[in-house]
Design goal:
Blueprint: H1 2-12, E1 23-29, E2 37-44, E3 51-58, H2 66-86, H3 91-94, E4 98-99, E5 108-109, E6 115-120, E7 125-126, H4 136-150, H5 169-182, H6 192-199, H7 207-213, E8 220-222, E9 231-234, E10 240-243, E11 250-252, H8 254-265, H9 283-297, H10 303-330, H11 342-369
Antiparallel strand pairs: 1-2, 2-3, 3-6, 4-6, 5-6, 7-9, 8-11, 9-10
Helix pairs in contact: 4-8, 4-9, 5-10, 8-9, 8-10, 9-11, 10-11
Bound molecules: adenosine-5'-diphosphate, 2-acetamido-2-deoxy-1-O-phosphono-alpha-D-glucopyranose (GN1) and magnesium ion.
Organism: Anaerocolumna aminovalerica
Pfam family, one: APH
Keywords: Transferase
């Protein structure tokens, strides 16, 4: 029902606001993001084939200031465009390109205060939910490593914090404790095992933050949401052609980008797998990612960063599990869910991965440190 209403508004009003090329044909939902509502919109043109664009309703209950958000994305994509052009690449394909509104704005706010934005569609490329082909994960790692490298000279002070305390795991832990205490949905009694799992790892939550505060590790411009499904892979070469979902590009740590990629892409199963016997961290995928990521970003990292890279995979997985569990306890208000207990299922896979990484940590460290030259 909600979709029907949204679709009518989109077709009658929203699509007409943007600098789209051609006559509107139709619209369909796109992708498996947990935050925004994403659509592919198709347009007919006279002599050439139809063209499609990406249209997104920005989730403004999470991304509270769409103007500063879109200014961040404009700044970052302009910077990337310049570098891609200098290297002889195609910026319309290798970075997101904002399609502005007809009156030159970065997004459109409709009468219900809902905010919409549009991008060029990255064609001849695929968004994968798992590292299903050999070499794919290595290529995604290279692309995320390159992304970080290309932004290493971006003026970080011009970026606004789009989501406050996004990877502040200490704060995530505090929110979790509050959710347990309030137990708004009466769900805590059924998830005692998961709650205890988190509590036993409280001390892990502060390790990276503490080092950032003491300036022992540098702040960098990072993506902060480096899931495999936030990158488009070229259909012919399988190269990571374009990093997408730039909502969380902010000053952060290399650990956030590296750790989150491992959390999602090195898992043997989907993020919401219910058969936990299928869930573990695939050490070969871990190795692949380390090699790809460090081949691009490796020389910029400090020794301390190398030393904690493997741990960051566990930390980011724990953090994400805490966020899923917190959302479950609070009544599923943050992440989109598609079935009952979806967030609990997601939390459980994350905790299974954490436990598995703890068993493999020594091996993970050895793999990373074998690349450290300083
Ligand atoms: P969310 O923040 O909800 O995750 P994303 O920006 O990641 O939203 O978009 C959701 C999905 O839409 C992506 O995972 C991808 O499948 C698809 N998508 C987003 N932008 C593009 C694009 N420019 N070209 C092609 N597909 C895209
Ligand atoms: C969300 O937007 P999406 O689906 O790419 C979330 C990430 C989580 C991820 C878990 C802005 O990512 O932080 O790690 O879900 N993004 C935001 O799958 O909260
Ligand atoms: Mg996404």
């Amino acid at each position: 029902m909600e979709n029907k209403i949204i679709d009518t508004k989109i077709t009658a009003e929203v699509v007409n606001q943007f600098e789209f090329n051609g006559e509107f044909i139709h619209i369909e939902p796109l992708g498996q993001g947990h935050i925004n509502s994403t659509y592919a919109v198709y347009f007919r043109r006279e002599t050439v084939p139809p063209i499609r664009y990406v249209l997104q309703r920005i989730n403004t209950s999470i991304l509270k200031n769409p103007l500063t958000l879109m200014k961040n994305i404009e700044g970052v994509t302009n910077h990337l465009r310049k570098k891609i052009m200098e290297a002889g690449g195609n910026p319309d394909r290798e970075t997101l390109t904002i399609v502005k509104t007809k009156d030159g704005k970065l997004f459109y706010e409709d009468g219900d205060k809902e905010c919409w934005r549009a991008y060029l569609f990255i064609e001849d490329a695929t968004c994968y939910q798992s590292a299903e082909k050999p070499g794919l994960f290595y290529n995604s790692a290279k692309a995320f490593g390159r992304f970080q490298k290309l932004l290493s000279d971006y003026p970080a002070e011009t970026l606004s914090e789009t989501i406050e305390k996004f990877h502040n795991t200490v704060n995530r832990y505090k929110n979790f404790e509050k959710a347990v205490q309030e137990d708004r949905m009466g769900r805590a009694k059924d998830v005692q095992k998961e709650i205890e799992f988190v509590k036993a790892r409280k001390d892990d939550c502060g390790i990276v933050l503490d080092l950032i505060e003491k300036k022992e590790i540098p702040l960098r411009v990072t993506h902060n949401d480096t899931k495999l499904n936030n990158i488009m892979m070229d259909n012919e070469t399988n190269e990571g052609i374009c990093v997408i979902d730039l909502d969380t590009v902010m000053p952060g740590s290399v650990f956030y980008d590296f750790g989150d990629s491992i959390r999602f892409g090195a898992s043997s199963a989907a993020e919401d797998e219910t058969d936990l016997s299928k869930v573990y961290m695939d050490i070969n995928l871990f190795k692949e990612y380390v090699e790809g990521f460090l081949s691009e970003a490796g020389e910029t990292l400090t020794k301390k960063e190398y030393e904690l890279l493997a741990f960051s995979a566990k930390l980011l997985t724990l953090e994400c599990g805490i966020r899923f569990l917190t959302d479950y306890l609070e009544g599923d208000t943050y992440f989109k869910i598609h079935r009952e207990h979806h967030n609990l299922d997601r939390a459980r896979t994350q905790f299974k991965l954490v436990a598995n990484m703890e068993e493999k940590m020594e091996m993970m460290n050895e793999i990373v440190m074998s690349h450290c030259k300083n």
